[in-house]
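[job 4417] fold queue: 2 targets
>>> target A
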Amino acid sequence: MEAGEDFGPWLARQLKLTGKSQAELAEELQLTRAAVSAWITGRSVPRPTVMEEIAKALGTDVGTVHTRTTDTQVGLPVTWYHRPGYPDGGRDGGNAAAFAFDADVQVLARETCQNSLDERLVKNGRPVRVRYTLHELTGEVLDAFRKAILWDDLHPHYSAVSQTAAHQKVGRVVDAGVRDMFEKGRLVLLRIDDYNASGLTGDDYDDGKFAAVVRRQLESLKSGRGAGGSYGLGKATLWATSALGMVLINSTLSVPHEGRTERRVIGRLELPWRSVDGRPYAGPAWLGRPDPDTPGAEVARSWWADEETVERLHLTRDSDEPGTSFLIVGAHDVASLDQSTVDLDVDDEDGSDDGIRDIRAMHRRLVEALGRDFWAAMTGGGSRLPLLETSVRTLRNGEVVIEEEKVDPTVTQPSRTRALRAFYDGTTVDRLTESGQVAFRTVPLRLPLSGGRRGTLGTHPAVLLVTEAEDADGVSNQVHSLRGNRMTIKRSGVAGLPLGVNAFQAVLLAGHAAGESVPFAEEAEEFLRAAEPPEHDRWGQTEELTLRWSHTAHHRIARLTTEVNAAVKELVARPKRAGGEGGAKLRKALTVPRRTVARRGAGVVLPELDGLDAEIGAGGEWRITAEVKLPRAEELPAMTPVVLLDVRSGSRPRLDWAELVAVDGCEVEDGVLRFTPGARRATFRGATDVAGHPVRTALTRLVLELRAGKGE
C-alpha cells in the first residue's frame, strides 16, 4: 500500500486547490489560526474528530484526509491550458525541435532508450528496464479514452488547425491524424515505460528534470557522466511520433516532491499557432490542474492522480519502482514506408496511410532497432552487469496481439555479443587462430588540449575487439563504436581489406566503455560526446568540438579511425601457409591462363586478372575472389569472368555462376563486369553453381578466364 503524504504539505496544497486561506479554515473549524499553522508546519497533527471537520471543509471524505494518497477533487479540476498567443503577434508553425527527427519508431527507440540509460539508478547495480507497448484502440475503448483526455475541450483547437492545414506541415500531419481516428475508428497508442530510473524529479517550473522535459526546449539535465544526450533534442521525438502532437506522462519519482513519489501526471500538446473563437493561441498546451499561484489560476501544473485516473488514461505502471511512462497518442511511423517490406502493388489511390499505423510492422521495427543500437548495453560478463533490459508488446483493446518480446542481444548480434563478453571475462586472444575466438588490441586516441592550444593532453587506449561474423549479425566486416552508455554510436566498414579475408565483426570501446580505470577515460568520454551530432550516430566535426577544443580537433578522431582500420586489417589477414597446406592446394587447383596481354583493335588494352583467392564453400561450391588490373583508358570494354573445369584433353566444360557480385571498382550486370571510369583496379566475388558440377569439387581443377564482351 502506498504511504500517505505528510499532513502539513498535503493540507497546504489542498487549501490552494480549494482557494481557502489558513484563517478561513480556522474560522470554519472554530479553531485558532495558530492551530492550523502548526499543522501546516508539521509541529502538530489534528485529532481524529477534527479530521472529520477538515474533510467537510475541503469537500471530501474523511478517508482521503487520513490516507492522503491523492488530492481532493473539489476546487480546481484537471483541464487543458493553452498558451495564449504572443502579445507582439508572432506565430509558430510548430515546435522546431521536432523537425530534427523523422516520425520513425526506430529513431524514437534510439532516443528514448538512450534517455532511460542516462537516468538509470546506478547505486543498486540493476539495469534500467524499458518496455514499449503498442496499443490500438477501437470502438467503445476508443470512446472512453477520448473522454478521459477531454477531447470535447480539444476539438475546437484541432478544428482550427485543420482549417489552416494547407499552409503548415504540422497542421497537415495533425489533420491526417484526426481524420484517421474518426474515419477509420482507430487510434494507436505507444507507451514507453522505464523502471529503475530517476523519474521526472523537481519542481514544475524551476530547474530540474521535470521542467527540462515538460516545460522547456533545448535543455539537457542528465544524471550520468557518460550520458548519451547533450542537446536536449531527444525528447522531441516523442511529440514527432504523435500524429496528434500529444504525449501524456506518469512519473514515479526517485526523490519525493511535495512529499509524494507516485502518479505524478501531466500532458503536453504540441500544435501550431491557431485562433479559436477569435482568441489566438501560441502552440503548446498542458493537461493538468490549474496552478492557484499563477495569475487567474490558468496555468496548468502536474497533479497527483488516483489509480482510477491513470487507468483511464492508459498510464498504469506495473510497480512503484521509480521511472516514467510516456504515452504517445496517435503514434505513426512514416519512415516505415521506406522499408522493403511495404507492398508496392497495393492500390493507394484513396490516400490510405494504413502502413504508417501498422502495429505489427511497428512492433518488428522497434525490436530491430533495440537489438541493433543497444546490444552492448544489454550484454554483461565478468564483473560487469548489463545496463539495460528491453521488451516490446502489442495489444488491441487490451487483448494481446503479439506477446511481450524481450530483446536478446545474443540473437540480434551474436558475434559482437560474444566479443564483448570475452573482453569482460578476460578470454580474448592476441590473434584469431580458431573459430569463436575474440582478438584484442588497443588503439590510441590522442586527446588534444582544450581552448585551441597546441599539443596532446594524453593518449587514451581504446579497446578493439575482432571476431568472426555470423549470418544473424547482418552486414559483415563492420566496426561498431561506442562509449560509456554502451549505445552504438558509429557503424562503419573497413576500406582496403585484403582479398579473401574471412567475414568478421569488430567492436571499438572508447571512454568509460574501455574501462573506468583506463588512462584518460573521463577525458575521452567528454571529448567524444562533444564530437556527436544531435542524432548521436557518428564522431566528427561539431560546433561544440570547435568551440571547446579547436577547428582541427576532429582530425584526432580521423586518426583514431585510421588506427582502428589498420589494426583490423592486421588481425583478419590470413597468415601465409607452407607449400604443403590446404591453402596452397586450393591455389594450385585454381589457375589463370598466363598469356601476352590481349589487344582488341588498334591499341586497345584489355583488363587483366591479377590476383586470385579461392576456397570450397560449405555447400561444395567454389568461392572465388578475383582482382583485375585495369589499363589507363578513357573507356574500358565490358568483360565476362568465365570459370572452366581443367581437363587433360578436349574442350573445358564451363561452369555456371550461382553468384557473381562486384566488390570495388566495377559493377555486375547480367554476369558482365562493367568497370568504373578512372579506376586502376577492380575486385569481384563469385560462387559456382554446385548443381552443374560434373564431379565432386575437391577432385577438380579450375581455370578462370576474363573474356571481352559477353564471353561467348
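>>> target B
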Amino acid sequence: MARNRSRNRQQKQYPRLTHPLVRDPASGELRRATWDEALSRAAAGFTAATAAHGPDAFGMFSCARATNEMNYVAQKFTRVVIGTHNVDSCNRTCHAPSVAGLSAVFGSGGGTSSYAEAEDTDLIVMWGSNARFAHPIFFQHVLRGIRNGARMYAVDPRRTSTAEWAESWLGLNVGTDIPLAHAVGREIIHSGLANRAFIERATSGFEEYAAEVEPWTLSVAEKVTGVPAAAIVDLAHAYATAERAQLCWTLGITEHHNGTDNVRALINLSLLTGHVGRYGSGLQPLRGQNNVQGGGDMGAIPNRLPGFQDILDPPTRAKFEQAWDVVIQPRYGLNLTEMFEAMESGALRAVYCIGENPAQSEADTEQAIRRLTSLDHLVVQDIFLTRTAELADVVLPATAAWCETDGTTTNSERRVQRVRKAVDPPGEAREDIDIICDLARRLGHDWKFTDTEEVWNELRGVSPDHFGMTYERLQEHQGIQWPCPSTDRLEPSYLHGRLWETDPARRGALAAFGPVKHDPPVDLTDDAFPIRLTTGRRLDSYNTGVQSGGFASPLRRGEYIELCPEDAARYGVTADERVRVSSRRGSVVAPVWIDPGLRPGLAFMTMHFPDEVDTNSLTIEANCPIAGTAEFKASAIRIEKLPVTAMRS
C-alpha cells in the first residue's frame, strides 16, 4: 500500500482588511471607500430594508470570536436601533443543541463543571469528541486526570487520537447515539445501579424515561449501534459506580438533525446516576470558538436577553426596557438557520455580518451563497476579506479581538477572562464597538462608551449572573466563572448543587428526564450513495481556514477523503490518488488518505480547506427542529475513480 505523504501546506491567504470597501454600482466590484461613505452606505441600506419591509427584514450575525462587550453592543444594536430579535452567531452551527438541552433541564445553558474537575474525577466519558485535536487545552486537563487515576471511555464512530488514550473505545455507527445512551441507561436500571435517592429527590419524569429505554436491550442496541454488548455493559457499570464522573461531548453529538435529543439522552444518564451538581461530576459540552459561550451569554441569540434571560418573561423585559429606554417585543427572533430560510422566501432583506463566514461554514454551501447573494443589502465587518465579505455591499475593517482590543471572553467552563490590547490594528481598521456605535448614531441613537469597561458595567447592571465580575475582580482572580451575583464572594466551580439540597425550597425546580426516540440520519445511504461521510476538525487548522491558513504547519496536509484500508481496496484506490466524492447536493475532487481508525463504510473529511475542497458542498441542511443545527456529521456519499487524464491534470 502506498504511504500517505504529509505536506507542509499553506492555504489560500485572505488579505487583512485595512480600509473600508463598497460595491461600485457601475462595475459591480468592491472598491476602496472612506469611512464616512462606507458607514453612510451601510446605514442607508438598513434604513431602506426596514422602512420597506419592517424591522424583521434585518438580521445580525454576531461573532463568537469577538469580545463579550462587542456581542453585547451588537445585540443591543439589533434590538434597540433596528427593533428585532433576529440576532445569532455560529453557536447555531455547533452547540445550540447543548444550550437548548441543558437549559430545558436545568434552566441554564452552560456546562456544569470546571476544567480542573477533569483532573480530580474518577471517570471521563468523551462522547462524540476528538478533544485532543478539537480542544487541545481542555485535553491537557483530561490527561492530568488520567495520570491521577481517572479512567477514560471514548464513544466515537472513529478511533480518533483521543480514543488512543481511552481504556475502552465504543465505535458506534453514525447517528446511533440515542440507542447507545438508552442501552446504557437500561443496563444501569436493570442492574440496580440507578441513584434512586437522587432521582426521587431531584428529578421528574423517571418512569417515562425508564419506559422509553426498556426496548433497547443489549442485543437490539448491538445490532443498531454496532457496539458489542459487553462494551455497553462495561461503560454502563463504570459510569454508574464511579464516585465522580465527567460526561463530555462536542459536535459529534450536536451536529445532527436531532442534536438536542442527543444532548437530552446524555443528560438523562447524568440524572440517572446523580453525576451532576457535585464537584467532579458533571456535564461538559466543549465549545469550539474562544467566545461562543460568551456570545450567547451576552444575548447574541434570538430568544434570550443578556445574562441568558428569557425574552418572554415580563419582569425581565421591563428591566431591559427601563435600562435601554425602548419597548422590547415579547417574541423570539429568527435563529441563524431560520434567517437563511427567510432569505429564501424574501422575508429577510438585509444582514449585518460581524466576524462570521457563513458562505463557507454553512451546510450545502452552494445554497448558502445563493441565499446571501439574494439579499438587498449585506454588510460584513471583519478582519479578513473572507468569501462572505467578497459578496458584501459594504465591507468594514475591524480589529482582531484577541490582540487589538480590550474586553472579556467566556470559555466552555463559563470562565470570564480579560482580553487586553497588545498591538494597534493596521491601516484604517477600527474597533468593532466604535463601528457599531457610529452606525447607531447615523440611525438616530447617540451611544457613547468611553471604553470597554463602561460597556461591561452596563452589562453587569442588567445581568445578575455577571454583576459581581468587575474588571478589577476579573484581574485579581485571573477570571471568574458565572454565576457571580455578588462582589464579595465566589460561587462553586460547578452548577446545580441545589439539586442535592434536602429542603425543597432550596432545591428549586426539579431536573426533568427527557424521553427521546431514535431517529436515523436524514441522508440515507443506498446503492447510489453507499458510504457514510462524517466531518470534523484537525489539530493544525481552524474552521474554514481563514485565520489559520496564512501560517504554514508541519502537520498540515490539505484536504483528503479519509477511508479505511478495506474501502480503499474495495474501490481500487491508493493513498494520494485523487477521486471524485459526490453527495446528493454536490461533488468535489479530493486525494485519498488511508486511516486504519475508520471502519468499512465510513469516511471522514474536514471543513478547513474550502478553497481546495469544499466539503460543505456535500453536507446536508437537515436541521434540528429545536436548535436549528444542521446535520454536518451524517451525509451519504459515493466515491468514483477519475480517468487517468483527470488524475494527471
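[job 4417] complete. Note on B: The first helix runs from residue 35 to 53.
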